[in-house]
Structure formats: C-alpha cells, structure tokens
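Folded chain entry —
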Amino acid sequence: MRIERVDDKTVKCFLSNEELEEYDIDYKDFIFRSEKAREVMQEIIEQAAEEVGYKPPKLAFDLQIMMLPDQGMILTFSEKEPADLKENEQLFEYLRDMKQILQRAREKTGAASGGSAAQQGMETAQKPEASNPEGKEAARPEEAVFVFDRLSSVMEYAAAMPSTLRVSSALYCMDGAFYLYLQKGAASYERYSRACIQAMEFGSLYTADADRMLYLQEHGECLIAEQALKKLRAVNG
C-alpha cells in the first residue's frame, strides 16, 4: 500500500493487484461501500494519518477510483465540500417527502377513487406550505446519477418506467459499473421524483453534484448519450 499526499484535503493510495487479492476486494466493493471496503478505507486513512499527516474530514469524504490494468487500483480521498453534501442531502430529502406523498396517495386510492387520490398527492407536492410553513421553497434538484452493478439491472429499471415519461437520460460505464443520468426534462417534478425513487430500488444514488457528474462524463464511457431509457426499453422489446 503506497500513500501519497496531494494537498491538505486530498490523499491518494495505490493498491497493487496482490494487495487487492489479499484483501479479497475489488472496485465494486468500493463503489457500493461494502463492509470490507469500509474496513480497508479505515486502514488507509489511519496509515495516511501516520505516514503523511493526513487529517480525515469532519463531515465526509469523496472517493474516486481509478483502475490500472495489470497493476492495481488508485483510490483518491478528498474532503466533501458542504455544498456537495447539501446537494445530495437536498435530493434525498425531496425523494423522502415525495415517497411519503405517493404512499399516502396509494393509501387513499384504496379507500376512494384512484384518480382523485393521485391528484391530491400531486397537489400536496406542489404546495410549498406542505413542507415549509413559511412558504419559502428551496430550489429542487433536477438531475442525478444512479449507479447499477449490472447492465441487466438498468434494463429492468428502464422496462419498469412508463413510455410516456419525459425525463432526459444517458447511460455511462466506468470501472465495470453502469451509471444512469436522469434529468427532469419535460416531466413533472412528481413523475421525475417517482422515477428517482424507483431507480434506488434497482441501484443506488451515485451523486447529485455537478462536479462528480462532470468527472463521470470525462472518465466514463458514454454508452447511450440521449434517450437512454427509451432505447433500453426498445431492447427489452
């Protein structure tokens, strides 16, 4: 394990293929933050503190993974800026609120007519007073990236989406994982939120931060540049 200090907030660690085999770990463990990955990252942080005086961030860190063919892997730890954390937390907050609203709508559908219940759910989502008594509604995130461990999972998700969904979408591949970019596009925020909620049933949220999206665009391979959901549904037939 070789550790290099980049700056006050960033440190790089090189893990050889032999070390990866010894830890019985690969890039997927780091992408999905498995228990093994968390143990290795803690060991790296402790060693970095001893060797190069690295001080772990108080809030959270951003992890970037670079595979080196026939050599190993480079892990780059950098401190997450408060703005980055707020962006992801804001998306999670809206998705949690929207999930509760949709759940209430489904419950009402069981006792009344489906159309009126769904309409009530949408109206609740559109009222800032429902989540903010002062009526000051923050800007709602309108784009996010979700990560899937298999292409088949992305295709299953695409097949579950209605053909009338008017979100913008693109598909990338990086380090063996698949990344689906979703942007609200011409869809209502209620339908976009529903799509994001369902995406987390097949994969997990990768980021809602513009810088990490740019990193994906620069370092990942673009498989489908536009209308990814529509094209994947067509493949499913």
The radius of gyration is 20 Å. The chain has two domains: 2-79, 83-93+139-236. Residues 2-79 form one domain.
